[in-house]
Amino acid sequence: MDESREDLLAALQEAERKYRNIFEDGLLGIALTTPEGRLLEVNKAFAALTGYKSPQQMIDEVTNVGEEVYADQASRERIKEILARDGMVSGFETRFKRRDGGIIWVLINSRVVMDAGGKVLYFDSMLEDITARKLAEEEMQGKMRELNALYLASQAFLGLTDIELLHEEICRLIVDQFGLRMAWIGILEEGSYEVRPVSIYGEEADYLKNIRVTWDDTPSGQGPTGKAIRCGQAQAVDRIDEDPEYTVWHERAMALGYRSSASLPMRYEDRIIGALSLYSDLPGYFTEDRLRVLQSYANLAAVAMRRAALHAEVKSYAGELERRVAERTAELEAANHELEAFSYSVSHDLRAPLRAMDGFSKMLMEDYHDSLDETGRDYLARVHGASQRMAQLIDDLLSLSRVTRAEMRREPVDLSALALEAVEAIRRKEPERRVEVAIAPGLEVWGDPRLLGLVLENLLSNAWKFTSRSDEARIELGALEEAEGLVYFVKDNGAGFEMAYVDKLFNAFQRLHSASEYPGTGVGLATVQRIVRRHGGQVRAEGETGKGATFYFTLPPSLRNCDP
Amino acid sequence: MKRDKYILLVEDNPDDVALTLRALKKHNIGNEVVVMEDGAQALDFIFATGEHAGRDVGHLPEFVMLDLKLPKVSGLEVLKRIRADERTAMLPVVIFTSSKEERDLAEGYSLGANSYVRKPVEFDEFAEAVHQLGLYWLILNEPPPR
After folding, report:
1. pLDDT grade, residue A446 (50/70/90)?
2. Residue B36, C-beta contacts closer than 8 angstroms, at least 6 positions apart
3. Does A407 touch chain B (CB under 8 A)?
4. Interface contact flag, A354 B121, Cβ < 8 Å
5. How many CA atoms lie within 13 A of A464 on its CB side?
6. Is A385 on the interface with B (CB under 8 A)?
7. What is the interface pTM, i.e. ipTM, of the complex?
8. Residue (of A215, A297, A229) closest to A263 by Cα position
9. Which range scores top for mean pLDDT: A140-149, B104-113, B122-131?
10. How far apart are CA A435 and CA A424, in angstroms?
11. Which residue in B60, B77, B61 sits closest to B69, CA to CA?
């Protein structure tokens, strides 16, 4: 019996010793507290954690743990609520005040100890100092915030092309995201060392008023902004109040609550275009890590600014171009109107005198035939002939001018059908001539039917005219496949021309044959060239004197397959 | 009362007037030709106003040969006024002009011209055109009821 009591006692003493070990020497803080906040027992760890020399000192000095140890009394009330509800609380994080005023973060596990009747005796709490972890967490969050700022920045800057809005946004975003006091952007001026502020945001109260910032090695260039630009590196001032280089702006900065600052050079490709200067109310705020993030931000901002500048340049060029085009168009329209008026009066005014010349010379010939001798009749005939040619010339000229002014239609055109019509009209004027005409069927093109009809009329009547002295006259219209596409041609075996003069062929009024050989005004081919050019195509000619001539023209495919 | 059939020629160019008269004579069209030298006079004549007040409005020409480019009042304006008045609305009007302009052609017809003939430059053709017009409008064509 004695042995078992002794064993029991020994076991109890052992247990108590173990407990004492844990309590006294354990790393976790342990405290027994009353609901009112009195400390019943406190271990060494707890005392050390909270900055007391010994548990005894703590018990002596602290009368209400809720008021004196908890940084925020409401936390203890909250714990008591949970304890009342659940009987225990675990993982509760809160801040404690140390004896020297310092703040630490603790993690609390606590349980209620009651007597047999259910009355609360005390709270048995264990805590852990998690200050380090908490600080790390905060730093992480800080970094997340910073990265978020960069992300927001890239999104925001993407959308802004108005350079003033962009400048404002650059400053505002960084101040808001990082909780800074102020931010401003300075741009390099061309041709001088001046740094021109273009936007400022935050508590600034005329900070930059009447202050000249430069980036050369002069007093006005010694500030962080000037240095950042000059040396091409981020500059940070940890304590404005102690910094000798802040002399010029010192008073103002202190008055506005700036305690630290940083200047980031804004670099685009290899050029520094300015600097972003930032101010915080916390000394030492601009750490290496922070500067890295801020430099990325500044670079992003520089890219966006360059983009906005380019955008503005393009806009102004576009505006200038538009203005010039409008001017040209107005000029062309005016010229066109003049031309139209001229053509109109030509068609009326020039014809009437011609008719009179022709008519009266005819009447002279009829009525005074007998009074006139051979020479007289010859003279009259010449007058008559001249007025005829003049009439033809006027018609051709009007035709040529109409080609340039007319609005072009774009529709499918059956070239073969047009050619057949033209040939018919030509044949009717000289039905006695025998000419073999071969028109390739099914030539479909895209263009203005009236103008293309004119082309064919001109080319075919030329061919008709220049084969007038050939026995077996043959005229052909067809198409050839060439490298660049389809080429149409009108070919005849008539008089031809000398290739040496081929360049002159398409000039207005230029003729390669005398009027006595073949009549003509020399305007027809100029008209053909003009029309084909308006369709975006080209004309060319090949000929051999005595053998014949071929006229080629293209009507480029870009005018085909266009939806009207 | 048999009234003489006459032609009204509205033409400002004296050469063209001479040529037209000559052409008509040449082809034995012996009707009287009344010549008005400008648009205002033409209207005065047709509606018996101004200088021609007192003329019998009911005695209208067989047809009108109307030039377009006239002093004072243009040919197209004259045509418009002729068509606007119910006394003269059906009066045959032949536009006889040098103009080759598409818009004159279009406007002429849309204002109610019966015919549009371009004056040839060559006299023989001109004479032939006048001949054809005379033949057609005086003889072949049925005039509107009076």
Report:
1. confident
2. B8, B9, B10, B11, B42, B45
3. no
4. yes
5. 22
6. no
7. 0.73
8. A229
9. B104-113
10. 12
11. B77
Write the pLDDT tens digit of every residue in A288-305: 988 988 998 998 899 898
Reading the block at residue A430, the tokens are 């000289």
Chain A hits for B20, Cβ within 8 Å: none
Sign of CA dihedral A163, A164, A168, A171: positive
Separation CA A410–CA A559 (nearest Å): 8
- Cα B81–Cα B86–Cα B91 angle in degrees, nearest 5: 70
The closest CB to that of B101, out of A344, A362, A391, belongs to A344
Q: Which residues of A touch B19 (CB under 8 A)?
A: 355-356, 359-360
Q: What angle do CA A515, A518, A451 make, to 5 degrees?
A: 105
Residue A379 Rama label (left phi>0; alpha psi -120 to 50; beta): alpha
The single residue listed with the structure tokens 């870009």 is A558
- The C-alpha atoms of residue A128 and residue A27 are separated, in whole angstroms, by 8
Choose the most confident range, by mean pLDDT, from A205-214, B22-31, B75-84. B75-84
CB within 8 A of A375, min separation 6: which ones?
A: none
> What's the angle, vertex CA A554, arms to CA A550 and CA A557, rounded to 5?
155
Could you give the CA distance from residue A453 to residue A443 in angstroms, rounded to a whole number?
A: 13
